[in-house]
Design brief:
heterodimer; A: alpha+beta; 3 helices; B: globular
Chain lengths: 148, 115
């Protein structure tokens, strides 16, 4: 099985968010995903980058975001890390709950989970690592969310 | 591509033609300022034409919710017109499609506002 991996170290800026999205879209296209899947992957990466830059690193110029893409025979794996205080995913409100439906934020992680086959959030005191997987086209693997 | 916004008046309704991306940063700010400006001028019947909006992220969705709520709180009405498939699908999965009043015909959309 061959594997291709590429990683980037990025500043905590809005430009990083746009670059991450654009790179994800390009790599997803190269991996053979269709237009709908490319949109889902690039949007999931955009939302993850927004979380890393805004909520994780809080635009702190001394903190970096790392973004890695890995293509295996079965999966397209994306890992994004920040250097923030660590995201407690259990405290993210359900954006579909009636009380939260009209809130103006809090949908990013929900969209990532909607678009990717596997989503893992690993918070620590030195930052958050978000790992997400889209199964390569035709892979019959189960679409289940991994435990956090 | 950044977002562009232009407004026109038809039978007392302000139609806001948006094109491009409504995302964190410029796109969301343009939408917010456009709606706030209209409401401050007393133009409270707003039809957001999203026919040329090809991309929206969670910040953009939040901005649509904010625009809807702001208009409603000021006694106005804000409706959506001509959703692209991407925007339609996003509003479906976030359960907001039934919250917004969504139209797919401009003339019918204009008539739907209270006189």
């Amino acid at each position: 099985m061959s594997a291709d991996r590429v990683s980037y170290t990025l500043d905590s800026t809005l430009e990083t968010v746009n670059n991450a999205e654009e790179t994800a879209g390009r790599m997803a296209a190269e991996a053979g995903f269709d237009d709908e899947e490319i949109m889902q992957i690039s949007m999931a990466v955009r939302e993850a980058a927004v979380n890393a830059v805004l909520h994780g690193n809080a635009y702190d110029p001394s903190k970096k975001v790392t973004l890695a893409f890995e293509r295996t025979a079965d999966d397209f794996v994306i890992v994004i890390r920040d250097q923030g205080k660590g995201l407690d995913a259990s405290r993210i409100p359900d954006p579909l709950a009636p009380d939260n439906l009209m809130k103006t934020s809090g949908r990013g992680i929900f969209l990532i989970r909607s678009f990717m086959d596997v989503v893992e959030i690993h918070p620590s005191k030195t930052g958050t690592e978000l790992r997400m997987i889209k199964h390569v086209h035709g892979n019959p693997a189960d679409s289940k969310e991994a435990p956090q | 591509m950044t977002m562009k916004s232009s407004t026109r008046q038809v039978d007392g309704v302000t139609i806001v033609d948006l094109s491009g991306r409504i995302t964190l940063g410029e796109g969301s700010i343009v939408l917010r300022e456009t709606v706030r400006d209209l409401l401050s001028k007393g133009q409270k019947k707003i039809l957001l034409n999203l026919g040329e909006v090809n991309y929206i992220d969670s910040s953009g969705i939040g901005e649509l919710v904010s625009a809807f709520t702001t208009a409603k709180n000021q006694g106005g009405e804000l409706k959506l017109l001509n959703l692209t498939k991407k925007v339609h699908d996003l509003l479906q999965i976030t359960k907001l499609y039934t919250v917004f009043d969504v139209k797919d015909d401009e003339a019918a959309g204009i008539k739907s506002f209270s006189k």
